[in-house]
User: Fold Geranylgeranyl pyrophosphate synthase from [Candida] jaroonii.
Amino acid sequence: MDQLIKRNDTPLDREDPMTEKIIEPLKYLQNLPGNNRKIRMIFIKAFNELYFHIENEELIQEMNEIVDMLHDCSLLIDDIEDSSEYRRGSPTAHIKFGQPITINCSNLNYFIAINKANNLSRLYTNDRAKQDEISLKVNRVIVDEMLNLHHGQGIEIYWRDNKKTVPIPTELQYLEMAMDKTGGLLRIIVKLLECFVPSESSKHIELSNLIGIIYQLRDDYFNLVSDQYSHMKGVVGEDLIEGKFSFPILHSLNHSTTSPVYDLLYNYSVEQRKAPENQPLILAAITFMKEQSKSLDYTNDLLKAKLKQAEALVEGKGEFIKHIFNQLNDT
Assistant:
């Protein structure tokens, strides 16, 4: 009992065999096949190459691990909020381990990531005052952008779950939501780099915002048209089934409220939309967005326009950012 009373440490300071048990959902997700882990490192290297020129490889690697952890934790929660059954072709973590332990695992590792971030300055300088100054900046960056990320995620959920009582979002409202939800992680990357090497330009923020929007539009588009995406998610038209206001869906709804898209989202429950016998309704809604409202073409055109805008910002510089643009142009 005295040992419990005197304890003044954290799980990070001691070896506890239970730690491995309670972080199993995150380890499971991290071991699922996918290329996102590699692309996040390329993002860090791309922004560093363009704007900051930090040569400390250990710092860059640690930064990447922190961003990976924050992103993976958000995916654990996102899959619960969306009632997703598959991630990258495998059962989602909360299906395999249960919702309570998955939620706790995600929250625990958010704080582990913040703790690791607060120690980044030690890899950069031995000056204690400088370390404290950088750590304060790092902490502010992560708190600010996690607020943005969860705010954007909350708005998307609110729209989805209250669609019968709220107006259909405008395109501008949607893109602002995406800048919060999807752009937040990219802004964490550039702002973390900026904590170590301040930049006089704001182009890195503008570029991260643009790429965040591009990724959201790309995800929205492929969710409805990609066979590979459908295979990984285990269903065709996952956003339609969940009842989300994705960009092509809200464009179609603003085009017509007497369509298969409107009928599916407003007159059927999630469970009804999941039912195999209603699969033709999903396909009819996708066909309408393709052939009638032209929402898929409209989304793809906007995606390409945003890509050109992003490419113009870097003026052909940077090998790593070119790699990213080449991947994003594959639509």
About this structure: The chain has 19 helices and two strands.
